[in-house]
Amino acid sequence: MIEMYSDDEKAQLMEDLKEMESLKVDTGDEGMILQDDLIDFIENRNGDRSDLIFRIELYTYAFKLFSRKEVKFDNNQFYVYLNDSLLEYEKIGLIKKDLDKFELVIEAVEENGEILINLIFTYHY
User: Fold this and answer.
1) How far apart are CA 115 and CA 112, in angstroms?
2) What is the pLDDT of residue 24?
3) How far is it, in rounded angstroms, from Cα 89 to Cα 74?
4) What is the spatial distance between Cα 53 and Cα 112, in angstroms, rounded to a whole number?
5) Whole-structure pTM value
6) In 10 A of CB 68, how many CB atoms?
7) Is the pLDDT higher at 104 or at 125?
8) How far apart are CA 118 and CA 17, in angstroms?
9) Contact criterion met (CB below 8 Å) for 117 and 106
10) How far is Cα 51 from Cα 24, in angstroms, rounded to an integer?
């Protein structure tokens, strides 16, 4: 498998998640807050692209969905390149529930002889 992050970087991201939970941060609202910030970025270009990319990756890590490439923005879409070929329906259901104003397309691609998954989120406005 292609790995975008080193083991140290993955460990740091998992530590960040544990820290969020230990501080009693309500991670249950993070998806909806993230959605609002993404829409504001897409519609008005408000916000920091790098911060949003980090937040999307941290959000997907909460579901143990790891990226193989950095999240990419393109107009009214963003792409999450997963380092896996299988998705659990329950995880996708939870993500769709949080990011319900986005259309989600799940794309299977062949990369270096492996079938991997991309999540493509589109906001229609």
Assistant:
1) 8
2) 39
3) 26
4) 25
5) 0.76
6) 20
7) 104
8) 23
9) yes
10) 21
* Phi then psi dihedrals of residue 30, to 5 deg: -60, -40
Element (H, E) at 22: helix 7-22
Q: What are the residues whose beta carbons fall under 8 Å from the beta carbon of 97, sequence distance 6 or more?
A: 31
Give the mean pLDDT of 59-63: 87
DSSP 8-state class, residue 114 = E
Rg (CA), the chain: 14
- Higher-scoring residue by pLDDT: 99, 11: 99
* Alpha carbons 84 and 103: distance in angstroms, whole number: 21
Q: State the SS3 of 45-105.
A: CCCCHHHHHHHHHHHHHCCCCCECCCCEEECCEEEEEECCCCCCHHHHHHHHHHCCCEEEE
In the sheet that 102-111 helps form, which strands lie side by side, from edge to edge? 72-74, 77-81, 114-123, 102-111
Q: How many CB atoms lie within 10 A of CB 119?
A: 23
Please choose, from the candidates 38, 43, 47, 45, the residue with its C-alpha nearest in 3D space to the C-alpha of residue 80: 38
